[in-house]
Amino acid sequence: MPYDPSAYPPFAVTVDLVVLTVRRHALCALVVRRGESPYQGRWALPGGFVQPKEGLAAAAARELEEETGLRVHESAGQSGGVHLEQLATYGDPDRDPRMRVVSVAHLVLAPDLPAPVSGGDAQTVRWAPVESLLSLEQEESREAADPALAFDHHRILADGVERARSKIEYSALATAFCPPEFTVGELRRVYEAVWGVALDPRNFHRKVTGTPGFLVPTGGTTTRQGGRPAQLFRAGGATLLNPPMLRPEV
């Protein structure tokens, strides 16, 4: 029996991006204000429809650049670069009012990035603290000036933040938030921002410098944080941390 595409309901695939960075010692996510329906005027994660002959990672990189002016490369992932990975797939039947849409979400981690530039169907784009974005779901009301995220993006953002928090426990991924050369203090502030906790500086220094393959001294120092010169490090070759950097219980 020949295949008849019209016998099946319309179906689309999108990509959504959880783009996280650390700005002013806070974990921030990239959000865009939608310029088109549905949810026109609401904040949302960057993303869009996958083109017919386009791979998922290519679609994620394209949508990010079109809507924000930021560029990522699928092969990136070293300290000082941009880390891009698939996060999860979301396919609830009613997640998009236009039609049945399955979204393949991606997680993007990067050092302190410049102010993004809006484009595509995004009216405005900005960095926002994840704490404030995730709290909007609970605080939303008819009088709210800044309602909750569009679609199911609150769930996607929460999943992306938890993935980042978990991965920096067991991997060297925290260095993706750092410049190519960084101090232990700068790395500690990444952990504090992502986990939302305060860490003891001496214990943290002992742990990260004593974990094989985590950090490599560059031989240089810096005074950019003020005070005495601090030793500079770069990411080592370890992908998994042994022992892991476990989150403190809050």
UniProtKB/TrEMBL annotation:
Molecular function via GO: hydrolase activity
Positions of the Nudix hydrolase domain: 10-150
Highest taxon of the lineage: Bacteria
Signal peptide residue numbers: none
Keywords: Hydrolase
InterPro entries reported for this sequence: Nudix_hydrolase, NUDIX_hydrolase-like_dom_sf, NUDIX_hydrolase_CS, NUDIX_hydrolase_dom, WH-like_DNA-bd_sf, WH_DNA-bd_sf, WHD_NrtR
Family note: Belongs to the Nudix hydrolase family.
PANTHER family: ADP-RIBOSE PYROPHOSPHATASE, SLR1690 PROTEIN
Name the UniProt record assigns to this protein: NUDIX hydrolase
Species this protein is from: Streptomyces alkaliterrae
